[in-house]
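Write out the 3D structure for:
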Amino acid sequence: MVYFKGRPSDIKPCTLRRVTLDTQLIISLVILIVLADIGAIILFIKYRRGHMDKNPFLILLQKEATIFYYALFRWKVNPKEGTYAYHKGSNYFWLFIALLHEQVIEAFAFHYYLKDVDPLRADILVVLHVYSILYMLGDYNLVRNSPIQFKGDQVLMKVGVRRSLLFRTEDVAAIQPARTQYAKSGGIIHEKQVFHVAMLPRVFTRVFGMIDELRYEIIFKEPIEARGYFGQKKVVEKALIYMEDAEPFIQDLREKVLGEDETLDDAVIVT
C-alpha cells in the first residue's frame, strides 16, 4: 500500500501512474484467479460425474510437460510406414508464424515500456509471453508428430494433445467426399457430434471463420467416444478429414473396411 503526505498537488504524475498500474494489476490477477477457480470446479464436477476417466489436473500437468518437451527437443518429424500426416498444406502454418512474431514483438514492447514504470508487471508479462511462445511451439510440433495411424484393425486419430479418437475399421459405415457447409448469411455451419482432424485450432474457426479445406468424412455405424484436452468424453457420429493429400489414407482405410466387412457394398464407401 502506498501512502502520501502533503497536498494532492504535490503528488507527481509518475506516482499516480504507478498507483493506477498497481490497481489494474491487482484487478487483473483477481479476475484470472476467479476464472481459474470456476474452470477447476467445472472440471472437478465432470470428473466426479464420470465424464473423465482420469484426474483432469494430472492430465493437465502431463500434457503441459509433453508440450514443453516437444517445444524444446522434438523438432524433427520422422515419418513412419502406415501413418498419414494431416498438417501439410494447413493454413495454420502462416498464422502460426504471424502469432510467434506478434508474441516476440509484444514481449519486447511491453517490457521496454513498463520496465521503469512498473518492473513487476513487466516481468510478469515477459514470463507470460515466453510461456505462450513455448506452448505454441510445442503444440505445433506435437501436431506435426501426431499423424493418423493404423494399429491393426484400429485407427488412431490424435490432434496433438488437443483431442483424440480411436475406432475400429468395422465401425465405419461410409466414407465419402465432403465440403464445408455455409449458411445463407455466409457463416460456417458447425456440425455437432463430429471429430475434426485438422491442424488449425478450432477456436480460430469458431471466432474468425478460418478453416482448412474439408476433403472427406468418415461416418460411423454407431456413435463413438472421442476425448478432449482434459480427457473429457464426447460422443461423435463422424470424423471430418482436413488433409491436403487425403487419398492415400482414404484408399487404405477403404481397403481395410471392405476387408473387415464383406457385406458392405462398394457404393457405400465412395472415393
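The chain has six helices and eight strands.
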